[in-house]
Records
---
Amino acid sequence: MRRLRMGMIGGGPGAFIGPVHRIAAEMDREIELVAGVFSSDAGRSRAAGESYRIDPARAYPDLDTMFAAEKAREDGIDFVSIVSPNHHHLPAARAALAAGLPVISDKPATTTFAEAKELAGHVAAAGLPYGLTHTYSGYPLVREARARVAAGQIGTVRKVVVEYPQGWLAGEAVGKQAEWRVDPARSGPGGCIGDIGTHAFQLTEFISGQEVTEILADLGAVVPGRQVDDDCTVLLRFSNGARGVLLASQIEVGEMNGLRIRLYGDKGGMVWKQEVPNTLTLHTLDGRTEIIHAAGTQIGPDAASRTRTPTGHPEGYLEAFANIYRDFAAVLRGEEAPLLPGIDTALRGMAFIATAVEASNNRAGWVPLTV
Amino acid sequence: MRRLRMGMIGGGPGAFIGPVHRIAAEMDREIELVAGVFSSDAGRSRAAGESYRIDPARAYPDLDTMFAAEKAREDGIDFVSIVSPNHHHLPAARAALAAGLPVISDKPATTTFAEAKELAGHVAAAGLPYGLTHTYSGYPLVREARARVAAGQIGTVRKVVVEYPQGWLAGEAVGKQAEWRVDPARSGPGGCIGDIGTHAFQLTEFISGQEVTEILADLGAVVPGRQVDDDCTVLLRFSNGARGVLLASQIEVGEMNGLRIRLYGDKGGMVWKQEVPNTLTLHTLDGRTEIIHAAGTQIGPDAASRTRTPTGHPEGYLEAFANIYRDFAAVLRGEEAPLLPGIDTALRGMAFIATAVEASNNRAGWVPLTV
Amino acid sequence: MRRLRMGMIGGGPGAFIGPVHRIAAEMDREIELVAGVFSSDAGRSRAAGESYRIDPARAYPDLDTMFAAEKAREDGIDFVSIVSPNHHHLPAARAALAAGLPVISDKPATTTFAEAKELAGHVAAAGLPYGLTHTYSGYPLVREARARVAAGQIGTVRKVVVEYPQGWLAGEAVGKQAEWRVDPARSGPGGCIGDIGTHAFQLTEFISGQEVTEILADLGAVVPGRQVDDDCTVLLRFSNGARGVLLASQIEVGEMNGLRIRLYGDKGGMVWKQEVPNTLTLHTLDGRTEIIHAAGTQIGPDAASRTRTPTGHPEGYLEAFANIYRDFAAVLRGEEAPLLPGIDTALRGMAFIATAVEASNNRAGWVPLTV
Amino acid sequence: MRRLRMGMIGGGPGAFIGPVHRIAAEMDREIELVAGVFSSDAGRSRAAGESYRIDPARAYPDLDTMFAAEKAREDGIDFVSIVSPNHHHLPAARAALAAGLPVISDKPATTTFAEAKELAGHVAAAGLPYGLTHTYSGYPLVREARARVAAGQIGTVRKVVVEYPQGWLAGEAVGKQAEWRVDPARSGPGGCIGDIGTHAFQLTEFISGQEVTEILADLGAVVPGRQVDDDCTVLLRFSNGARGVLLASQIEVGEMNGLRIRLYGDKGGMVWKQEVPNTLTLHTLDGRTEIIHAAGTQIGPDAASRTRTPTGHPEGYLEAFANIYRDFAAVLRGEEAPLLPGIDTALRGMAFIATAVEASNNRAGWVPLTV
């Protein structure tokens, strides 16, 4: 079975996320990076192609050139991976789908909910696979948590607390990664809520198996002069009546990438932390606490199939990311990959961002979340 | 210098908090338990007196008898400690103050804000010391955190996140400790918000040096049939504009007494967790993380004066509690103890509970917090 | 039931361990400090008595005076607690036993094994209780560990690893606590091995239920000019053939009081750490990991009877110490307290120190450990 | 710059380490797996080739065939990676070197010290690069630790404690991974000491910058019937006089891959743990504790150049492994890679194993370690 061929859009010099996608895509040898438009600047695109060690002829200056050239090759790309800043997502995806290419995209899916709906239309019209790299749902123990909730191990979910603290934007937003994220023209109206809040949001629904139906949002721009939110509190209500809280911040000095989620039901509780991702803590109503180890004897098939090393040999962010690409590869091969975040997740995420921003601006209290 | 003599009100058979107060009060040999009305049932009061090994003659059946008898003794009590359920707090404090006795009381100070204002009147009229046992502000590293914030180590406080998860009321409320806490007649209108939310609230103001000026409260009664809240989310705004979040819950299965607080400023961040109380984590904007150890070389006088063992020899809840009593003893001896929570803290705590309960019931959004 | 009356020997100004014994002894109100010879200097003894708030008349200048005066009182002391440096232990205990007073003593029991044997003779001749404050065996979860090993939860014990790292003597030994510990005339021939190695040794036997039968010792004096060992490695063999390792050091910079022990059998494993004493980790051969919480629902009677606060309210060093005193009080009242370290433990500990020092000096390889 | 082409020896169906080497080698796109003799069984070799998605024609039945066929290709392999059980290491390396191919090999380098010396002769004669995959020295924070020790941050190293507990061989040795490891014919005379003890040994020298000059070994075969050691204690002396302890075990039930190392000097101490590899703890003599984060602002060039994600995005075992391959690729390209373990490390490791096994068998006490 040959490796699938990937064309990358974005990921040029200075973008940390390009190499991350490349490593993740290739980790299981199901996919190979062969081409790309790594920058809208032709020279920078070429330079990036070189750094990725791909055929120089396949580091293209623009999308049209890439699509045409690759179509003409027998070994042309099978899909594109969009890793550029948010405002490029929709145009890139639209063009790729129009060229008959499946799309996997970094999140958030677009800059606005309207764009997301447009995107969903293109995906439906093209009838092609679409994947969204919500990395954290690729962690084996996140999938274990989901499976255990579905199996009723914590009973009826009553409460979900998800926190996503970061501190790297506590000062001035300096550097390529920071600048576009605090610029509404490139990131969309949401800052922190779109950049990391949407990850946290996705995780609550992914693990709990419930949908968020109502939210109360309080977003703030703490750093003087900042034009987008950098500190977010969102209260949640889920479809089954469960209560929830989502905290996301990029001004909490010293926090690195502290995503963590806790779910509580009437029979148990569960805790997972991204920075120590290889354990899952399980509590039961009778007072027992169990530690579940990645790749250990106590984990089920969803998690077991997504680890590559024995227990005690830590896997991390790149491996979780690779699991998303493995799911996407499976879909491209016509297999089932029900845990791959797709266009529905994209729509829900963008609805969440839009609703939160608007409700917060209006101090609107509780508002419904609808897609 | 003789030991101060304490009369206890409440703390009878089955009340875990009575022995806790007794141990805490006596730990530094500044105070001695000598008398008490441990129960409104005379026989149970006597039995408790025996378990405390006090003079049987001084285990009284009611307050009036105690006050009269103790006044008549040369070695009569110097003050009372009120450790009974909330609805007894005001009557007991009123009677003690009327009898000329200083009062130290468990929290919350009363059942309602109106009662708290009445209490404040009695305290003012009596001109006697009043202390409130917000235990967690007795931890050495909480005091270290406060001192460091005051010294500007994290710069201007921008964000405070306090969480107080417990799980022990996730099922039916069974047993002496649980039953009165979920009965509004005895606990007051607040359940979780009064029992533990008020601790979390006090901690935010104690460490940050800021006052909460506005809140948005979302309290829920998750366990079917429960008449008071058991799960609380409260958004906070502080006097300097800082944002805050307070989470408290008693239905988070597996959580024990997980109080933790994080403060972030424009120069640094700080994290403290009650269940591992002997370390304080300090982050600086330039990316350094330092661990401050209780009784270690890096701590200042407020914390250093409140430890009893060398670094690495863990102190805990009882020692923190003892620090509150040490402060109270200092006040009784006419010394300064500016960190002792007193009647102002009592008023603010009860205003917080009342405001949160009312605002949540009315889905009122942001409301001012005034005393 | 009246409180037992304690006379302290040692614990004068500057000795941190005196107040620790006082707090521990009094915590459960079974014992009361009423008298003492706190220093061989009469003035310092008086000053210490004042700081303990005891009757000034009962802060004595020497042992003979104390024993005579207390005997003459109706409310005279019931026992003595010896908390002075090691070289005072034997003379103080001998005198107390001769005066008909039970003894509880800090460890190590004496300075040499010969002295320990002499002490054992006095204890036997007097027919009086003798207790040794191996504090760490007073921790509830240490007792839980012992009970679980005895119940076969980890199967046949095969391996014990105990580590006791400290760093406070990594530089020059400065101050009252440090100076006598590095002076063989006062501490005995063992430095680190006697000060903390003996705690680690006691813990291995206490929890495993096995006796050490052979050792191989490698003691070093790392700090230039030091006259006693400050860094120790000792290999162990237990009576059932189990292997063991004991590491103790006082020159490991940054280590505070890092005592920890791990036991492995053919069915499971167990880990306990003094600096986070309120959890015990349990592993089973089939790959499960369970966290046992102090005062939680999963603990047995030995541990449950030795906690004073609900789960999540940390207890620490002082409470563990108090458990030793509670055992001793029980013995004085004629009750059973099988977990109290006594004269047999004293003998084994001193034999361990003597054997380790001699074997290390002689580079003797494996040698039997006999009492 | 083209990718280097790797031929794998070993790594057939059921061998977890084959895919690990493949992922590690390819992670940075400097190397590509293109060929292999994955099993001595031709059919199994083909099947493995398919699972790796390489050209079926390049999954060879034996070494000679591979070397001949690859030599004949313009795009033939540039080097081999040996990932088979130990007894294949020498013959495979010898043949590869004879065929003019550089070698990177899993550890231990050979089964015996005599073999290692023979290997060293072949490497010297061939004048070709040789690398040894001591994975753990590829972790960024291990390199940070090494750099900090070299820079004098902990002063003169006085003490090194390395522990490598595992539990997976506590029961019967079942399965492909376990069986050969407990068979002296395939693993060599050392069991645990060779499988993991040698990693621990290498780490002590790598970080401390000192060589071990003397050892005292106590190896045991704890599981009944086991023919090689499964539990090891080795005392160490370093070239500068520093003391050391090495603990390795495969029968410590519940331990996964708990490698951890602590180094102490006269100015500071340092702690690193493989299972939480993205932090390094640094202690200073004046009582400060600092946490160093991988990819954080406080790390130096050796570590910074070996991370792929921002701080807080955990990297793990595969990334550390990839760092070894990146070093090896650098060497193949003629660049400097001074941290790559090579033939000298191989010789020292095999000398360590041989000396430890022999000294333990003879109960020889302290013996010199010479290469």
---
Amino acid sequence: MSRIPRIVILGAGYGGIVTAIRLQKELNYNEADVTLVNKHDYHYITTHLHMPAAGTDNPENARVNILRLIDEFKIDFVKSTVTQIRPQEKKVLLEEGALSYDYLVVGLGGEPETFGIPGMKEYALSIRSINSVRFIREHIEYQFARFKREPNRKDYLTFIVGGAGFTGIEFVGELADRIPPLCKEFDVDPSLVKIYNIEAAPTALPGFDPELVEYAMNVLRNKGVTFRISTAIKECTPDGVILATGEQLKAATVVWTGGVRGNHMLDEAGFETMRGRIKVDAKLRAPGYDNVYVLGDCSIVMNPEGRPYPPTAQISMQQAGVCAHNLVASIRGERLKDFEYKSKGTVASLGRGEAIGIVGTRKIKGSVAAVMKKVIDVRYLYTIGGLPLVLRKGRF
Amino acid sequence: MSRIPRIVILGAGYGGIVTAIRLQKELNYNEADVTLVNKHDYHYITTHLHMPAAGTDNPENARVNILRLIDEFKIDFVKSTVTQIRPQEKKVLLEEGALSYDYLVVGLGGEPETFGIPGMKEYALSIRSINSVRFIREHIEYQFARFKREPNRKDYLTFIVGGAGFTGIEFVGELADRIPPLCKEFDVDPSLVKIYNIEAAPTALPGFDPELVEYAMNVLRNKGVTFRISTAIKECTPDGVILATGEQLKAATVVWTGGVRGNHMLDEAGFETMRGRIKVDAKLRAPGYDNVYVLGDCSIVMNPEGRPYPPTAQISMQQAGVCAHNLVASIRGERLKDFEYKSKGTVASLGRGEAIGIVGTRKIKGSVAAVMKKVIDVRYLYTIGGLPLVLRKGRF
């Protein structure tokens, strides 16, 4: 009797968890051993993290226990941190132990890309996990409490967000919404609070429709956000940032949303990478390794014009569908599918009741877009956990 | 026509606000000008501050807007900080401006007494105002968030409370109640959290019935509190405390409840003081100044055995009654009253559902005492603000 193939999935982000759920449905009994490895015992909804980071929603609404999403009789779950991938040996090392595989799915997620800006890694916060967003929320509240003890420290009430991409804009929208209740709670004059959103590119939300970008910036300006576009940050210090112009902005809080790179473990594993990402083949495999699938922030997929798609939850989930299909097909000796990205639209929230988006070729904004954003959130919960999850985490 | 006398009340704590409310009732139209001066536009319920400090209640429940308590047509309210008292000139200086008086009521409250322990003033937190308790609450939460980023920093989860007097014990009880929900919220193993209550005296709650003290300590030990009694703190550092034994306890949070002294402005004003307190005469006046009444933490009243009563809310409020009476009597040329303290009982809370107390000669403990504590709280709200205030702030 031949041994059944062993599939190891690294990471329970969008790519990993959706791959696991699909495999669980599609594989027959004893067709493969599937093991999902994740640092935490929960999956988190990265696209939602800007809300708990600002404190406008509870972090519990941004995470789901993994054992509620997978069937432990069909999939093994190992809570551990991956420390090394050894593709030659078909092995991954964990903080506690090691796992061998026949097929590997790498969905480890990305890391902040600070582009070598001095001090950014050390002093800026980033929105990347439940732990990090709880920290940011507490850090923000703490600055208000500190200010009441040292009222000459205006820098406690200055918040700098580096990067006006998707995450930066969505976070700034929530933060601006959070300021009035915080001012009320701590008896702080709202006019003392400053929010700066700084972007090196010549526009906020690069790649987005300019008319919608203009709309978004106006919404955020009206909430008190000051934009500094076409302005690079030269250095981040414990006291704030220094701009390329030489100007210094003092702030006790700097949140960096300016870039995402892939995972350092992929560089270390000997794969050919670009900023920690692997340019996958049409089947989503790492070049040279027919048994290694790479998803999400760890992967690069080119659009028809030959430029990489930005890494989003949407593309990760679509990749996961193809990845699961290809794994099953490989095991069964069937034909593999090519991955092709189909955009279902993009919506960026701008805080309570406001958003902008593109659905098909249609531009949407304001409350219509905000409702659309909610629909997308709910659709995702439904995809991974069905109606019970929608009811538990849907915030109605 | 003779000028009407001017009464200035400094501080809207228990002594000041109750004096103001009584004067408002007892004085006839145009009998006196009364001005109440306070740093904030709210009165706070000091005996309740241990709860918002630990985060077990909202700070809003511990404060009341002053203009809801006094009638502005009868009493002027000045929101300002007192900077100097000049009893010879019958004048007080404020941060903005100055006030002359014929009668002065000093209810400025106390300050932490650190007994010269090095570093205590600089590095320890104290439970003394709405701003300070919001800070302590945020500081505690922040340590949990920090620990998740730096899991080797066990000192983030160590909380040292210096002093096991009334405030120390009540705070420790609330803090112990707050730990389990914080551990749940931040995914922290509760066994990593340490609470130390350190007291230099040979017993917790010095002066309280030993049987009740024993009961209280057992309740708190079962909630996870470690007591170090008969143990002096030699020094407070940014990293924790050093005990007289030389032992070092590392902690990111030290809350000092070990002592209260009077107000430094009384020392500076040339009154005869003991640790910032004035030993008042039988009518509650500062020796040598028949027109200066001193209440609460700023005053010393001796018990029949010739030892000072501990400063409590209860004694302040009783003083306020006599003070108001004596002010009215002075103005009318009537006879002044002597102050005599009548204990109505004392209850110390030990967190949710637990307390100890003495009512008359009866010892009470457990849920009976906890209910009694609530009754006392409600009675106070009723005294100052009537039924509407009880309903607004009563936490039912």
---
Amino acid sequence: MLDEPIIQRLKEIVGAENIATETQDLICNSYDATQMEFLPDAVVYPGNAEEISRVLKLANGERIPVFPRGAGSGFSGGALPKGGGIVLVTTRLNRILRIDQENLLAEVEPGVVTEHFQQEVEKLGLFYPPDPASLKFSTLGGNVSENAGGPRAVKYGVTRDFVMGLEVVLPTGEIIRTGGETYKGVVGYDLTRLLVGSEGTLGVVTKIIFKLLPYPEAKKTMLTTFDSIDGAARAVSTIIGNKIIPTTLEFMDHATLQCVDRRFNLGLPAEARAVLLIEVDGDRELIEKQAAKIHEVIKPLGLVEFKVAKDAAESEALWKVRRLVSPSLRDVNPDKYNEDIVVPRSKVPDVIRRIEQIQQKYDIPIVNFGHAGDGNIHVNIMIDKAVPGMEEKAHGAIADVFRAALDLGGTMSGEHGVGLSKQPFIPLELSPAQIATMQAIKKALDPNNILNPGKMFPV
Amino acid sequence: MLDEPIIQRLKEIVGAENIATETQDLICNSYDATQMEFLPDAVVYPGNAEEISRVLKLANGERIPVFPRGAGSGFSGGALPKGGGIVLVTTRLNRILRIDQENLLAEVEPGVVTEHFQQEVEKLGLFYPPDPASLKFSTLGGNVSENAGGPRAVKYGVTRDFVMGLEVVLPTGEIIRTGGETYKGVVGYDLTRLLVGSEGTLGVVTKIIFKLLPYPEAKKTMLTTFDSIDGAARAVSTIIGNKIIPTTLEFMDHATLQCVDRRFNLGLPAEARAVLLIEVDGDRELIEKQAAKIHEVIKPLGLVEFKVAKDAAESEALWKVRRLVSPSLRDVNPDKYNEDIVVPRSKVPDVIRRIEQIQQKYDIPIVNFGHAGDGNIHVNIMIDKAVPGMEEKAHGAIADVFRAALDLGGTMSGEHGVGLSKQPFIPLELSPAQIATMQAIKKALDPNNILNPGKMFPV
């Protein structure tokens, strides 16, 4: 609970109409895409960096935890106010400040929705590649804080690779700039990339300078079906080994295909055990040549079917298979734990085999799909929480999935972050010295531990 | 001066044959590519991370400054032992530990010479793009610590974009891993990229995992000559605006061309005021098309001559113009200050005009060339130190050049780093709050300030 005088001071900072303390408003800001919920004491909607600075200075003086929040679409509880405090929502900072066509960059506020930004730059023939699945509602500030990825990361990289500079309010309320408008720049420590992916624990991003690219001339989509996981996995290495870096290399395992087929009747071949949705983009003639080459080199790998889209409508039809995955999963079981492990590309078949064993051990359905080009697999553990004991089984399975990824030289998360959901598992991946180093940085920037406290590190 | 017992303990750690205290050895490690010199008290050549850890623990206990050093080819004094202490040379850690062709990555030790690494991966059809001018002698550890760039950064990015993970000895002697073998990974803070470009002030890199690419199928080199700086600068934006991102876009101004021509008689057209050396790489047919397109779109911009290489020998001949720049400069004056400012691409003509004014103001020759695609211009202030007052003029000109770059939205350094040489100018670029944030991080990781102290920040 916040005292009335504190609420009063917050009202003075952000305006009475930009603070909420009624239960219904608190509930709206108590959850994200995980199944966790924590009620804040108050929600503030500041309008600019100066107001955010003043909120943080007040919070620092009074030792009140502050939890930055974008659209609340995160998959790891990174924005949830566990323990209570102030949720600081950045959605009013939602302007695209400028798009510089000559220097291929844009400056935006953190509350801009990802897809809206993409549409605006595309109108000018430009391209912002990062495409997290949540792009229709997630904010760019959230994308930066979580270092969001997406299918196009194989060729273009993740959010980090497009952030040139930031304006940030530090936990102490200081407003600083990091990086700048040039891609090269080596003066001082790389605070920009320290902040990207720091999950709102080191600062509140108030401006972002993004690098842009020219929009690719054309793209070509292929749906390729294999009679084994190994075939699909070898296809990934074979394509890249032939000097083709596709834009996307999306993978769906047998369980995923069964899910989608059961509900939407895809008419996939009976031998289908894995599907790769492949897209290439760039010069119109080059992608024709690449598509033909891809067909040629993957043919010997147990290829059952090769569909190539002739136009945008056919491309959309092929993507439908991938987009139907999420709505189909709930048919297996109503509740889902969605983890996003990563392994070195060549280890994808091994990790899928390990997950099959985990599935048998715990006797719960696990469905795998994701970004095979990066080795980034979304592992969906499907349970029914109403069934006694099933949630505990899921927790055991999740720990085993993380151990499998780490055993194979991978990581627990490629896109979703640690937040609250992976916090208990951190010691599996990071050594005490690594954790101590990160905590020392946190303490250096947030001496009173008021910004998104209790996240990421073991508590 | 180090006491004899300290020398004795260092000998026990690295072996008596791997420590040097004789004046001639100290002199060899007292300088770099700047014109500064500082004698260390001792030089150690450890053989592995464990020995480095023990050296740092000893140094911490005794509060002895330690200065990590690769090949000593840096351009900012980053490895120089100002104030004395121990120079820690990493050249004995010079193994390429593995090249993983399936996952397109390599693990190396920091003492591997950049060009040697490139040659080894190229034998396997792979590609490590970063190409600092010093690549024939610089080490990969130095490249990582300075975040080295090079001509190919336009298309491929800088060293930072290829570092996936590190093994680092922290100033306290702790050995940690950062990042890993997967390109995606969001567990914990991005210590990898905090360390890249930290100029040896936060840790000693002992292993590096690099991302690799498939080696491009072909490349095409063009030497394009313009009748004005503006024409050449507009050519850069026009090419990129036409969806072509060349591998390199190297720029030489009129003063540079005169220098080279005077010595090597290039036979450039009389109207030549600027040259762009352009290279594209990739699919054989695509680059033919791109070269034709480049010719078409830059023709209206005051193009005086367009030479395109038909084969590798002709390509080498065109590159010769660029390579002759450095040896030609000394004809202007014997001493050189080489700064590497960056401005947004569109501001290249403005900054060149400002530099012309600075040249007139101080009446000293300034020669500009560099990476126009990134807006990264190497500004060479040519003086004769024997002439009284000329060095002071150079210092004034350098400060003005930095101010011009910053006024235009740029940075003082795109590749060389701060080290000692840009330290006095840091407050021009970074705010007190930015500096305080960086110093807090330094203090968190190096509480006794023993690792490369007195660098980067104002002292």
